[in-house]
Amino acid sequence: MLILPVFVAWVLLASAGLFYFGNQNYGPFAADARWPQQTPAEFNLIALNITGNTGIQVVHVQQPQCSCNSKAKQHIALFDSDYQVPLSAQHQRSLTEVAAAGFNLPASPAVLIFDNGTLIYAGPYATGPLCSVADSLIAPILLKQVTLPGLWLNGEAKACRCLFNPAS
Question: Where do the H-state alpha helices sit in the chain?
């Protein structure tokens, strides 16, 4: 008689723990709702020490020890083959380097997409707690299935992200 209540309690506690730790980094990409209204006036590839302003250039932004980096790697693996963005047009920068260049991203992993040197997208790779490739936000942009009317600072998407605290 005692085994059944103990088993049920164990299942409930284990489920709650898995849910909490599994969704610990899930939420809006920008916790501060004002981030999407920022327009980086002087932020460009040169500020990030990247030369070449023709075509699509992407900057993959991560911070160390973020548990969401593994999910971003699934997306990054598709850039060359599926999205036709050559490795020479892909660059890696840390969240701190991007901040030092004058652009404050609220979280990572993030991707910055430049078209002919102009920033057109900044935000997460995908939506959802697993940031699945099937939920990609950037595939239609990179495949030219969607043309953005201007800069999209995507802070409203809910994704796996590690919030950036420059003081830490």
Answer: 3-22, 69-81, 95-100, 139-142
